[in-house]
Amino acid sequence: MGLMDALNDAQDFLNNNNPLTEEERSQFRNDGFMLPSSFSADGNGLPYTKVPSNRAGQVKRNIITWFVPEFGTVRMYINPQNISYNHKKIISKERTKGGYSLQYWGEDLITVNISGTTGSSGIEGINMLYEIYRAEQYANDAIGLSLAAANSNASGAANLAQQGLGALGVTGSLLGGLLGADSPNANALASKNITTMAQNAFTVEMYYGGWVFRGFFDSMNIKEQANDFQISYDIVFMATQKRGYRTNYFPWARSANQGPSLSNTPYSIDPGNIDQPQPLSSEFIKR
């Protein structure tokens, strides 16, 4: 059996013992973790013209989910009150005697402004957002402790080996050569394949309704209000990458690829094909 066969067998074993149910698959897909096929321009129209009408819908809450490197996914307690997506192109213009000289440098980073209150979660909701905001610092704490432990263990092992072999007359330089400590690339025998703070800070992802923004946090402002005792926040997230495709989710929204909204414009979501949530039973309410 070759290496690839062994890897395939291991992956098949994991897939068979940890399958996703259809409900879980639908949940991941709607939250943006499993992205739909991306529509693209192919010469027959813009991507929005490829979105079908009268799609099957379901009633659910679209809660923003963050992917934090080294920690996993974190769902917000409550969605922000406002989200703005600022798009800008980098175009330099210079006035000359013959007119304007324009240079096109592509698109600038997307600025996502998020603002709202933590609602009834109060200061604990702020704690969660603040820890997401500076998660690379917390990740570096664990990495620093692991490196310190690795260096301590390596130093202790080297000292024991040196004492044991020194009794046999083995010199320190020879011992260093055997252990690789005299190598120009050696540094206390500690592993070097670790993530940096910059890598953890630049690879945060925000999932919301089919859109995924990857980037980094630029700033965060927190404000306590005495009139209603709410705690509000403003977060600026700079997106270096955007993927996914967001479509209508309200049953009254109509298809945009049919021209002006008229009485015969089809709905984006089929009103007769929406899975309604089941009412709570009296027994569950008592609990």
Description:
Helix content is 30%, strand content 29%. It is of the alpha+beta class and 287 residues long. 10% of the residues are buried. The model is unreliable at 181-190 and 280-287 (pLDDT under 50).
List the helices and strands and how they pair.
Elements: H1 3-17, H2 22-30, E1 55-58, E2 65-68, E3 72-75, E4 82-86, E5 89-96, E6 99-107, E7 110-117, H3 122-133, H4 135-166, H5 172-179, H6 197-202, E8 204-208, E9 211-224, E10 231-244, E11 269-275, H7 282-286
Parallel strand pairs: 1-11
Antiparallel strand pairs: 2-3, 2-8, 4-7, 5-6, 7-10, 8-9, 9-10
Question: Compute the gyration radius: what is it?
Answer: 28 Å
Q: How do the strands of the widest beta sheet line up side by side?
A: 3-2-8-9-10-7-4
Main structural class: alpha+beta
Q: Strand portion, in percent?
A: 25-35%
Report helical residue fraction.
25-40%
Shape by Cα distribution: extended
Oligomer category: single chain
- Low-pLDDT stretches are 181-190, 280-287
How many DSSP helices?
7
**Biggest sheet architecture:** 7 strands, antiparallel
On the 0 to 100 scale, the average pLDDT is: 77
Order of helices and strands: HHEEEEEEEHHHHEEEEH
Q: First CA to last CA: what distance? A: 55 Å
